[in-house]
Amino acid sequence: MQEIMKQAKLKAEELLTKGVVNRVIGWTEGDFSYDCSPATFTLDNLDKFVYTEFCGANLSKYLIEESKKEGKILVFLKPCDTYSFNQLIQEHRIKRENIYVVGIECRGKVDIDKLRAFGIDGVLGCKTEGDKLICDTIYGEKTVDKVDVMLEKCLSCKGKKHVVYDELIGEEVVEEPKDRFGMVAQLEAMTEDERYKFWQNELSKCIRCNACRNVCPACSCVHCVFDNPDSNIASKANTDRFEEKLYHIIRAWHVAGRCTDCGECSRVCPQGIPLHLINRKFIKDMNEFYGEYQAGEDTETKAPLNSYTFGDREPHEFDTKEGK
Amino acid sequence: MQVENKTFKPTIVAFCCNWCSYAGADLAGSARLSYPAEVKIIRIPCSCRLNPMFILKAFQRGADGVILCGCHPGDCHYTTGNYYARRRMTTLFSMLNYLGIEKERTRVEWVSAAEGAKFSAVMNDFVATITALGENKKLEDLRCKK
Ligand code: SF4
Ligand code: SF4
Ligand code: SF4
Ligand code: FES
């Protein structure tokens, strides 16, 4: 990753110097090495740019605002981020002509909470070696199996292909897409009451911080229903079981067919709610009912809920194998 | 407990498309075919007008079952509205069930303006189903309870 980061920085410097772009959006470290967040750079602060195992954040959504500004911006996109980028293009939310996309190599990002669960604290930096993660900590060097500490979204990666880019940095690590629907299928196999209990338990943890919505590239509405005081929907803490569910059903519904399964919602949830299990249910259903569809794979294909066929299954047939 | 069960009268919200089922309900009335008083009809301009939020709000405000009635596929006044509605309701109902909400609580039926008898039969059947199922507990909002 050190090598890739160096190359990325050089690329940014080159494009800024040549005047191809006037800004760069990338990641920077906060007080701690694992505290990486999105930031914009010019030649003045480019030394703060980092690309590490903790750069899980998807930069696509920031382009909605950034691409409206004067001049071109350089953005670094990991493979999964490129799907969100395409989706935003399809929805006319970002200006392609104002963006220079550099696809950047990714071998899976690390979840600091999982590292901590392994008793690894005081992390100064990490590097990937094969399938191991070597952590430099204030207590010395620690090694773990990387798969045990990766972000959930990386454990179910769609396959590490950049679907859009102007230029690539690093290798295209092409992989078989990992299984994303195993857990959804397990839930489907439970009884209604068991599922209700499962979700009641998960969703009641929600503190309605709205982080999942704020980070979601598909949640790009200028006026979100949850911010409308006249909509009769609380925009802050849920007060009862109904509201807990309402928020999640409506949000998942709004992004159904547009969610690229980028995994950002689950990543940012401070309560660790497995939001991806809700979104993936919609994805799985739409695949099964209306044919395979991957949002963000290209910018043309119509989303399943924006089209229909005469022979679609009837609503009560949602749980039968092939409809009628 | 037993007494309560016997007297349980569900509240049913029926979203009916103006061009077909709403007229179907009218026809049922003029033909003196009865449908249960528990059914509260809300007229919508087309089945595809049904925002999922309406369904959830209905449950919040005390509905025990929600049914959407629209024109038969192919007969939508706006040509294709019900095809979209069909996909939306299929995925939405599936999601509600995935979250543990009883499958029987939501339903879609295609009822034309000429099908007064079907309208009455559908409503009677739906009310019977929900009565047997009992009160909506899983999607209730306690603040809205009397
Ligand atoms: S929750 Fe719905 S209205 Fe709000 S930003 Fe997301 S898609 Fe838009
Ligand atoms: S719902 Fe979650 S996984 Fe889907 S696009 Fe939004 S942040 Fe990404
Ligand atoms: S990020 Fe988590 S806690 Fe915050 S609103 Fe979303 S689900 Fe609730
Ligand atoms: S007009 Fe009746 S369903 Fe569209």
Give a verbal description of the structure.
The complex is a heterodimer of chains A (324) and B (146). Chain A is α/β, with parallel strands linked by helices and 324 residues long. Chain A folds into three domains: 2-109 and 160-169, no CATH class; 112-149, no CATH class; 182-317, no CATH class. Chain A has helices spanning 2-18, 63-66, 79-90, 112-117, 146-149, 152-155, 182-188, 192-203, 211-215, 241-255, 264-268, 276-290; strands spanning 23-29, 36-41, 49-50, 73-77, 99-104, 123-129, 132-137, 140-145, 167-169. In chain A, a hairpin with a 6-residue loop joins strand 1 (23-29) and strand 2. The longest helix of chain A has 17 residues, at 2-18. Chain A starts with a helix and ends in a 34-residue tail after the last helix. With 146 residues, chain B is α/β, with parallel strands linked by helices. Chain B has a single domain (10-134), classed as Rossmann fold, CATH 3.40.50. Chain B contains five helices and four strands. Chain B has helices spanning 2-7, 21-30, 52-60, 81-98, 116-133, and strands at residues 12-17, 39-44, 65-70, 106-110. In chain B, strands 2-1-3-4 form a four-stranded parallel β-sheet, with helices on both faces. In chain B, helix 2 crosses helix 5. The model of chain B has no long low-confidence stretch (mean pLDDT 92). Chain A binds chain B through residues 187-188, 192-200, 225, 232, 239-243, 245-246, 249-250, 252-253, 256, 278, 281-282, 285-286, 289-290, 304-305, 308-310, 312-319, and chain B through 52-53, 56-57, 59-60, 73-74, 80, 83-84, 86-103, 106-108, 138-143. The structure holds iron/sulfur cluster (3 copies) and FE2/S2 (inorganic) cluster. One iron/sulfur cluster (SF4) binds next to helix 10 of chain A.
